[in-house]
Specification:
single chain, alpha/beta, seven-stranded mixed β-sheet, 6 helices
Length: 221
């Protein structure tokens, strides 16, 4: 049975998930789109994408999450696949302080390569994942992390445990809400500024499927 039957889904939103390897990007995507988690780790080679139908107010949106490779040498991949994105989640590992500083490298690669519909930088959220692996003492620097996020132009920050399902939905609700608010402000005379982007996204998805056998790219729904 098609769970999307009867839903008027005209709008597609692309969100990229970036950060160092082993920060939980793929697990984040799977938890939000499928509600699943596994301890098995397999590095993303180039890019994988999943989608989820998301309701906001009285409209339905197809949210595409693009999970990009996290190896240091692959920041150029981020620049390529961030094109036509509407938002960004930058993950780091709360048990690894270096990965927090590295979020700036990943965010910079996106800020340099793409712009939102209003020609401003993409709305990006900072996520410290794996809070289930630290004690309360390690969580006392919340104000410091909040300032770090504000100083580096993240629209917000979240602490998550993908494994335990903590903070993932809240993070995505916040980011998608911000994206849709900005899109609404960009709308003129009732026109939908997403329509042009949807055409571009369809082409990207087609190319991704064509390259599945030789580029390390995959699609899962």
């Amino acid at each position: 049975m098609d769970t999307n039957e009867g839903k008027d889904i005209k709008n597609e939103i692309k969100i990229i998930i970036i950060g160092n390897s082993n920060t939980g990007k793929t697990s984040f995507v799977n938890k939000w789109t499928k509600g699943t988690f596994t301890d098995f780790y397999k590095a993303t080679v180039v890019s994988e994408f999943s989608h989820k139908i998301y309701q906001h107010k009285d409209k339905f949106y197809r949210i595409q999450l693009w999970d990009l490779a996290g190896q240091d040498q692959n920041t150029h991949i981020t620049k390529i696949f961030s094109k036509n994105s509407h938002g960004c989640v930058v993950l780091c590992d709360i048990t690894n302080k270096d990965s927090l500083n590295d979020t700036l490298k990943w965010k910079e690669s996106v800020d340099e390569s793409t712009r939102f519909i209003d020609n401003d930088i993409l709305p990006s959220v900072l996520v410290q994942n794996k809070i289930d692996l630290v004690d309360e003492e390690a969580l006392k620097d919340e104000e410091e992390i909040k300032k770090f996020a504000e100083d580096n132009k993240f629209i917000g920050y979240f602490r998550t445990s993908v494994k335990m399902g903590v903070g993932v939905d809240e993070c995505m609700d916040f980011l998608i809400g911000n994206i849709l608010d900005r899109i609404e402000k960009c709308s003129k005379d009732g026109n939908n500024p997403l329509e042009k982007d949807v055409k571009n996204l369809v082409l990207e998805h087609k190319k991704a499927g064509e390259g599945n056998n030789n580029s390390g790219m995959g699609g899962c729904c």
